[in-house]
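Dear Dr. V.,

Thank you for agreeing to look over these. As mentioned in my earlier message, I'm a first-year student in the group and I'm still getting used to reading structure tokens, so any feedback on how I've presented them would be very welcome. I ran two proteins. I've put each sequence directly above its structure. The first is here:
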Amino acid sequence: MRKHVQKLLNHQRDILSAQAIAAIDAGIAELQGAIASGASKDVLQKQMEKLEETANKWLKPYPNASWRENVEVLLVALTVAMGIRTFFLQPFKIPTGSMQPTLFGVTSVPDYSRGFDPTMEARREGLTIPTGWQRVREWFEGASYIHIVAESDGELKAIDPPTRFLIFNLWQTLVVGDKTYTIWFPPDYGQPRLQDRAGLRMGQTFHKGEDILKLKVSAGDHLFVDRVSYNFRAPDRGEIIVFETRGIPTLPQDQFYIKRMVAMGGEKVQIGDDRHLVIDGKRLDSSTPHFEKVYSFDPKQPPRESQYSGHVNEHVVKTYYPNLYIPLAPLFPDASAVFTVQPERYIVMGDNTMNSLDSRSWGDFPASNVIGKSFFVYWPITDRFGWGYHR
């Protein structure tokens, strides 16, 4: 009561008379004195009623007072939330698999987004959609299932993008023949579209009772980004950082990427044929802080996607996968190639070295692009939840 009346007095002090201000100040002081003296509940109640009478007599009423107060509370809450997001902890979700298996992007079964693979059809056919408590448990693990069966014969005519409200997908429709099918609250598909992941093609024919769509989508990790620490120190080598793509050639200019920082301004970087980084002539290994898991791979095994395989240069890629047509490391063609990081710039690499668009392709970027470091995974509830991915 005291704080509320004091706030209203502060708001109206410039339009109230001196008599009104004195009367309200006196009432506030009396109630404050009763509180400080440890007065009984009855005494406090009387002082509160007296202050209320004084306030009602001298303060000017507001139109739609309850609406005004609720809006004010909402604006304060939004301001606090935006302040936390801007200066302390920013939520961030990982759409791609470039940091797997440390942090996961959106994955699916099947996934045709990288081309048609005969094994994908078998994986789709073998996909079993759980029920009951298992379905609930998998939901907490980030798994969503989509299953649509054709009600009549027809061709796939359209797949609309999800209808969104703020950050939420509300529904998505697809048309087969003369029938429109609706997917309620579709999951985030990451960068690929639904048709890319599911292998759907316009004009594809489906018969009554046949599966149009049978898909399991696993949510990418959602985490908080620590925006405080780097105001007081520079990133340490090996920390997982989030940065803006602004000013980086060949990349979209309005996105945020997450990678592991591996080298900083003035350092000379090489990628050995043994899949280890060499910084200023010093080879990094599993004893290097923050690289314990990155270099935990078996050197007798080929580098594999979504498994710790160190870092590969272009020569290593061609040695193991001669038919791979996508250059992963054009700036590091072989072990002898040296890349010198410019002053006040960083280079970064993804832990999923066989599927990461990183500094091996586009080089270094300004240190000022860094917004923070990965801090805490808050969704989904897996072994990476919290600080589990640091283990």
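The second protein is here, in the same arrangement:
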Amino acid sequence: MKDITIQPSATIKEAMEALDKTAEKVLLVVDDDQRLIGALTDGDIRRHILKGRDLIGTIQSAYNKKPFFVFQEDLDIEKIKHILTENIIDLVPILKKDRQVVDFITWEKAFGNNRRSETQKLDVPVVIMAGGRGTRLEPFTRVLPKPLIPVGDKPVIDHIIDRFKACGVSEFYITIHHMSKILRAYFEEKNPDYSIGFAEEDEPRGTAGSLKLLIDKLDKPFFVSNCDIIIEADYSDIFRFHTKNSYDITLVASTKQYSIPYGVCQLNGSGSLERIEEKPEYNFLVNAGLYVLNPNLIDIIPDNKMFHITQLIEIVKGNKGTVGVYPVSEKAWIDVGQWTEFRKASKIIEGI
């Protein structure tokens, strides 16, 4: 029970860390006597962050104050099933008459299967941008293309593909340029059980330019992923977030918290000291390198030119289009694009 309970005084950052550790993806908010006062999901936290609220604030304004529950005396499995299906939730807490939490029933316990795995079926294409030289990972990338750098017991590109495959994806395209023959040979030798196509750049085209080569292949919303990032998230939920809100582009952003280990001087307008802020903390949402794009946006991309996805985003915004942001926790984003992060990523993957 300790794994899924949290106190209302906990911070958003602490709640995100707790959610990363629990398979249920729901936290039960309880008081000091373990009495239920609310429930908190990753969706609740995402909505909280998108309102511009601070990660170091408490969960008080984020959690659901009226969660579904069943008293222990009234426990009936058919009633539980009805609550789960009617409200599309992952678990129902079981309470004593004083609202003390004594147990919980998950979708899997009630139905014998995992609702998330049942609903995580995606029939969408995925484009992996793998044409870069990977200079930040030299000297390895003088020998191997960056997507084939091993993280744990397999190349990073296999980690990316495996996470999409787990959601039912079977259609992949890889944009290639640097050491393209080695990448082609790897997949020919691998003989994968999914469809894979290549779009080869004759010269580097940036983080979006090569999508133009796939204009005849992509006729529905699709994912675009950098080849040096691994995202531990519900990809089906990301896609639903994109389509439900009718966004033109959705970008996945990781929360990042930075602490300054010094007293920061705040000045007044005349150059005198206003105050000293000791060891301040700053929170940001960082572009994680995973996107969902609508296919009509490919028409905007110029032919045979260097063109980055940030440029595409600016054009969409300039044309009054909509760009959604899907937040994930800091631990959900594994960056292997530079040596310091690569070493951390290897340890994380080995732990998973």
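From my reading of the second output: The mean pLDDT is 89. The first helix runs from residue 12 to 21. Does that match how you would interpret it?

Kind regards,
E.
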